[in-house]
Design goal:
Elements lengths: L4 E5 L3 H7 L4 H21 L4 E8 L7 H24 L2 E6 L7 H13 L5 E9 L1 H11 L7 H8 L10 E4 L18 E4 L9 H13 L9 H4 L1
Bound molecules: farnesyl diphosphate (FPP).
Length: 228
């Protein structure tokens, strides 16, 4: 396998906090700690691209305090952790809309993307992200041109190699994609777990990856055994 792309919908922060009688932002804070552990573990498991769903375009509908808290956590992450990852050779990029983000967050992102351009292991953070919006935007940008599926995928990934997802993990018990990487998941293996994101450990990730390696990926063809 040349690259191994894992995407994670990190769900369950709110419930984790509520079950402990804590306010929801406490769940996001613990969720950010999980991000640190999982980013580390992912590269040890051979993941070459990791896409994390940190803030969906629909999340603007949450209470303003919760939104502001999430933006602060993202900024903190970009300020503290991102640079350590870059030192170790990672590339960091943002996917999603940029025009509604706080200016200081945008400035951090621009610096990080420029400084990490040549990194090999790729961490993508989805902020103000909607897969359907991204698809419509990419379609509008190339309406006049005839494109291959690969070109269109690359356009969706902001000019990168088309980032087809190999394994999509969703924590928190729901079994849906919620407008996350719809195009890129065309042939993704899906892994749903009831574990809430703050409780998700490197061992859980290893379990999901091991499960992935047992799957028979046929892409519409027949398996080798059946082909004889
Ligand atoms: C979903 O849980 C989670 C989010 C909307 C935010 C995810 C953010 C983080 C994990 C922290 C910051 C991220 C980074 C990259 C540092 P929910 O609140 O919908 O949980 P619920 O379904 O239990 O209410």
């Amino acid at each position: 396998m040349s690259g191994f792309h894992v995407a994670i919908a990190m769900d369950g922060n709110g419930r984790w906090a509520t079950r402990r009688g804590l306010p929801r932002p406490a769940g996001h804070l613990e969720g950010a700690r999980t991000v640190r552990r999982i980013v580390e573990a992912a590269s040890e498991l051979g993941v070459t691209t990791l896409t994390l769903f940190a803030f969906g375009s629909n999340n603007w509908k949450r209470p303003p305090d919760e939104v502001a808290g999430l933006m602060r956590l993202l900024e903190q992450y970009l300020h503290d952790d991102a640079w350590k990852l870059i030192e170790r050779g990672a590339r960091l990029t943002l996917i999603g809309r940029r025009d509604r983000l706080p200016p200081h967050l945008l400035a951090s992102i621009a610096r990080i993307e420029a400084a990490s351009r040549d990194g090999d292991v790729h961490l993508r953070i989805a902020i103000d992200y909607s897969a359907r919006e991204q698809i419509v935007q990419a379609a509008a940008e190339c309406a006049a041109n005839v494109l291959s599926l690969e070109d269109f995928g690359r356009r969706l990934a902001g000019g990168d190699e088309a980032e087809a997802v190999d394994l999509m993990i969703r924590t928190g018990g729901e079994k849906r994609l919620s407008d996350f990487l719809l195009w890129e998941c065309a042939y993704a293996e899906l892994f749903f777990t009831d574990v809430l994101w703050p409780d998700f450990t490197p061992e859980h990730l290893a379990e999901a990856v091991a499960d992935f390696h047992r799957r028979d990926r046929r892409y519409g063809a027949v398996s080798q055994a059946a082909a004889g």
